[in-house]
Amino acid sequence: MSATYDEVVAKYDPVLGLEVHVELNTNSKMFCSCTTTFGAEPNTQTCPVCLALPGALPVVNEKAIESTIKIGLALNCSIAPFSRFARKNYFYPDMPKNFQISQYDEPICVDGFVDVEIETDEGPKQFRVEIERVHMEEDTGKSLHVGGATGRIHGAEYSLLDYNRAGIPLVEIVTKIVPGTGKYAPEVARAYVAELRDILRGLGVSDVKMEQGSLRCDANVSLKPMGSEVLGTRSETKNVNSLRSVERAVRGEMIRHADLLNEGKKVKQETRHFQEDTGLTRSGRSKEQAEDYRYFPEPDLIPVAPDAAWIEELRKTLPERPSIRRKRLKEEWAVPDKEMAAMINADVLDIVEATVLLGCDPTKARTWWLGEISRIANEKDVAIAELSITPADVAEVVSLIASGELTDKLARQVIEGIIGGEGNAKQVIDKRGIKVVNNDDELIAAIERACAAQPETAEKVRNGHIPAAGALIGAVMKDTKGQADAAKVRELLLGHLGQSGN
Amino acid sequence: MINKTAAEMADALSKGETTSLALTQAHLDRISAVDSKVKAFLHVDKEGALAQAASVDAKRAKGEKLSPLAGIPLALKDVLAQKGVPTTAGSKILQGWRPPYDSTVAAKLKAAGVVIVGKTNMDEFAMGSSTENSGFGPTFNPWDLTRTPGGSSGGSAAAVSSFQTPLAIGSDTGGSIRQPAALTGIVGVRPTYGAVSRYGLIAYSSSLDQAGPFGRTVLDTALLHEVIAGHDAHDATSINADVPAVVAAAKSGDVKGLKIGVIKQLQGEGYQKGVQTRFDESLKLLASLGAEIVEVDCPNFEYALAAYYLIAPSEASSNLARFDAMRYGLRVGDKDGASAEAVMNITRDAGFGREVKRRIILGTYALSSGYYDAYYGSAQKIRTLIIEDYAKAFAKADVLVSPTAPTTAYKIGEKVDDPMAMYLGDVATIPVNLAGICGMSLPAGLAEEDGLPVGFQIMAPAMQDQRLYQVGAALEAALNSKWGAPILSNAPSLGGAA
Amino acid sequence: MSSLSRDDVAKLAALARIEMTEAELIELSSQFGMILDAVARVQDVNLDGVKPTSHPQPMLNITRPDVVAPSLSPEDALSGAPAQEDQRFRVPQILGEAE
Ligand SMILES: [Zn+2]
Predict the structure, then answer these.
(1) Which residues are within 8 A (CB) of C89 and not within 5 positions of it... i.e. 6 or more apart?
(2) What average pLDDT is seen over chain B?
């Protein structure tokens, strides 16, 4: 019988540790000049270096060093004045050299922190996640397992290797152990990864697409009995590839550990793999003995000793911290909590801010991006950023509404036109012949036609039954192809039928 | 023609007295005649060589400006990748591999119009001092076919000393150019670490490896040195500086007023009598030319051999991990559902020779957790002490000298079952590699007791490679006049038309 | 006198991915005592305060610009492959999980 989550956290105190691997978005690989474009044909992006052909040598990508230092600075780390690459030796077919060039005891960034805020029973609460180190390394190739069940490694007859990904720059961000999160451990883990993702995106150093694997999280979890000072045995869950999964994986491991401990069993120190479908983890192949990586300084590379002045220059280029920026925008725009969350979830904060910076009213900007434009994006099943509509387009549409040149309804047509590739707002208006009908004579003529067509309804209105006017207004709007201002039509109609002033 | 020096051949080519095609064909004929005895080559690229020769001749006919060594045949140690040409590093694990790229050294040679006639035999992955550790059988010393030519660049040294090519490229991790040069009576230089790109040089020990030139004269060696040296962006350890003026130094050869330091620790006990005699004679010759001979003390050299046999195997254990039967080279045991891991294990056992396995195991041990500090870590500190010993010695002397090897060429099979005896042969050459400086071996005469060549080693500080050539040229001239002819003229003809 | 037992050598051989025969294991363990004694001489020196040298040349910060250069053609990349399929390297079944 499995313990409930409440029972687990009543009895045990969880201790977290998170290792995040981020693929940098450099043009070329970490140690060679092959391109890093995602999704290319297999083995079209390889060279003697990343295939580990005999004799080939690595040379460090300077942009990767710059990006890593920026990450370190954004995570409040110290940048080491002297750091080095090291070889991590182990055999695996997806790793061409059978060692990974990484960093060991001399990483480039150390001792930072990230503050995250989560909702608790007592309201919003901040947790500090301390960063132990940030270091550079390289990604492995990809293997395709053939034969056996559903392409899984177990039972496969053979494997096919594609080394396009081998050598893509990776940055590993390792936290210190995170104690004291109590029952909020899963939320803290999720909030940390989310904050990290936002920080990295803000820095522009990675695509941070968890689903494509450009941001991957390993979650270490252990439990200690309440009040105990002794850390429990930890498990390391790999393969956690969405924010939701981070939360689920931590919660799942806490329950699994508690069940073992409650039965008097021991937690095994092992690597586990998160199963997206079940939300559970399964054991990786346990090794008879701990792997001995035989780290030693990489003799083919020269130590990295970043210049202090350069570090300060990079520090100046850092963007505002995402959490601080969110707070600021929320206040400046006077956005309710729920709406703010909606914008963050829909990932429209940047684009709304850009629109506001063009002079657009924040509420209107938000409403258009989050409403009509999001709807169209959903319909087309693409990201908002991929639509061919810009903040300038939206700002213009909003200003055309304010000046009475567009109605809300017409504006939707214009937006649709812009997204459909018909040009900017003015061009769509021209092409489609969209205009607000404000000419009284034209409207009176349409009103007369409507009253003539529905004499009984017109009579009701004349007799003071105002709600009946709706049908006539509708007819006029139809007659004018929606280009009339409905409020204006109503005013004229009521006047026409002797109900002015009502 | 083939008995001439490379400089003389280049002169004949530029004067139109011969063509590169004729010169190349003459050397190919010599290879056909004698290499069945010497076994210097693992692969002869007849077609490639003749095509390059023809192309150089055509350029010359058009009056294009050519590099000094354009059209001259050369033998390339099989440790260097050459595009489309079999490259094995002397190992069965790479049998049949044809690199899809050129090493920087091969690219520079081609660009200079040098004619690469083939790939030479070597101790597997450059691990050895006798070329007996080749996966494809030993090379034989042209002076005495029952003896080794030294190693690991034994094929290259034997090719040059048996007049199969006037020039060759070797690589030197612990003496693998200088020691075979000494044992075959030719000139060999290990340039400063970082002076010649390691890109495409199949790594044995990354922090010690360095490719370098072989020639029959100091000038020839300098001409080749200039072709292959220089900064390369593909090698992060490559030095970004002008190539020292080695050709000019080889042409001047003046040692007047130069201070020459004799390293106390690298002579006397353990050195064969005839080796020591020729070394002492050479010192006298240098003194007679106006050099000042001083003695220097390098106390930590005593530990150099131990440090080397930790650092090199450690780096090698990692460098050789890539030979795993997955992407290239040999694959053994891929049947009956064997796993990738099993195939790797079986292939590496079948593909690597005894010495390579011995060093991989030693290196794996020295790097393993719990032993790192005691072995690899300590060895790196010894390296610091050796660098300091050199710094003190070079404060007293412009160049340092010693015999290149403690003995002349030994019999094939003599030390093959005694790794420690074999390792001791590197005692005088290893300190140069640990400190990353440059060294030359040049023939100092024949040992009286066995009539075999003796090598004289000159060492200079990093990026002062020109001093090697300056002293080497002076000594060479003095020795030639003392003996009345180049030392190599005493070598047997091997029955080929020489 | 240092030594490595047959089992020690077997462990190292497994770590180095070399399937050694019994004869090889025994030969190597018999040679290792002598070799280890020789290399252990590095411990005879007082090395307190001595910095390790991993690069003979004192260089720093050698990098390349983040510029793409052409890769090998897939034909060249796979030219040495012992086996291939669908433009990929074909390898025997892999046990265990990727790192
Ligand atoms: Zn590449």
Answers:
(1) A43, A160, A161, A162, A163, B326, B327, C78, C81, C83
(2) 96
pLDDT lower than 50: segments of chain B: 497-498
Sheet holding A142-146, edge to edge: A142-146, A158-162, C88-92, C84-85
Pick the CATH number of A440-496 from 2.60.40, 1.25.10, 1.10.10, 3.40.50: 1.10.10
Closest to A57 (Cβ–Cβ): which among B199, B205, B326? B199
C-alpha distances (whole Å) from B145 to each of A191, B35, B37, B138, B187 are: 75, 11, 8, 11, 20
Alpha-carbon span B150 to B487, nearest angstrom: 18
List A residues 335-394 in contact with C (Cβ-Cβ < 8 A): none
Quick one: CA dihedral B374, B375, B380, B385, positive or negative? positive
Residue of B310, B322, B345 best to disrupt the A interface, most CBs of A under 10 A: B322
**B303 and C42 in contact by Cβ < 8 A?**
yes
Instruction: Of B419, A154, A284, give the one whose Cα is nearest residue C31.
Output: B419
Low pLDDT (below 70) residues in chain A: 1, 149-154, 285-290, 500-502
Residues 6+ apart with CB under 8 A from A138: A29, A30, A31, A100, A101, A102, A166, A167, A168, A169, A170
**What is the least distance, in Å, from the CA of B452 to any CA of chain C?**
30
Q: Which residue of C has its CA nearest to A283?
A: C97
Tokens 């968890």, residue located: A210
The count of C-alpha atoms lying within 13 angstroms of the C-alpha of B436, restricted to the half-sphere facing its C-beta, is: 26
Q: How high is the pLDDT of residue B336?
A: 84
Residue B206: partners with Cβ closer than 8 Å, 6 or more residues away: A299, A300, B198, B237, B315, B319
Q: How do the domains of chain B map onto residue ranges?
A: 6-301+383-490
Question: How many of the other CB atoms lie within 10 Å of CB of A244?
Answer: 13
Beta bridge partners of A350: none
- The radius of gyration computed from the CA coordinates of chain C, to the nearest angstrom, equals 22
Mean pLDDT, chain C, as a whole number? Answer: 92
Q: Which CATH number fits domain B6-301+383-490: 3.90.1300.10, 3.90.1150.10, 3.40.50.1220, 3.40.50.720?
A: 3.90.1300.10
Strand, helix or coil for residue A126: strand
CB distance A176 to A190 below 8 Å: no
Neighbours of C75 (CB within 10 A): 10
Distance CA(A198)–CA(A186), nearest Å, equals 18
Which residues are A116's β-sheet partners? Answer: A127
Provide the token pair at A371. Answer: 């409403």
Domain count, chain C: 1
Q: Is the pLDDT of residue C99 over 70?
A: no
Structure tokens at B480: 């030639």
Residue C55 lies in a domain: no
Answer yes or no: B411 catalytic.
no
Q: What is the CA radius of gyration of chain B?
A: 21
Q: In this structure, which amino acid lies at residue B496?
A: G
pTM of the model: 0.89
User: Distance between CA atoms of B7 and B9, rounded to whole angstroms?
Assistant: 5
ω into B152 cis (within 30 of 0): yes
How many angstroms separate the Cα of A274 from the Cα of each of A155, A259, A283? 19, 18, 9
Residue A495 CB neighbour total at 10 angstroms: 14
Least CA distance to A298: which residue of chain C? C54
Sheet hosting strand A99-102, strand order edge to edge: A99-102, A86-89, A296-297
Q: What is the pLDDT of residues B358-394, one digit of tens each?
A: 999 999 999 998 899 999 999 999 999 999 999 999 9
Q: What is the pLDDT of residues B286-295, one digit of tens each?
A: 999 999 999 9
Strand order in the sheet with B211-215: B41-44, B115-120, B73-77, B167-171, B211-215, B187-190, B438-446, B453-460, B399-403, B259-263, B292-296
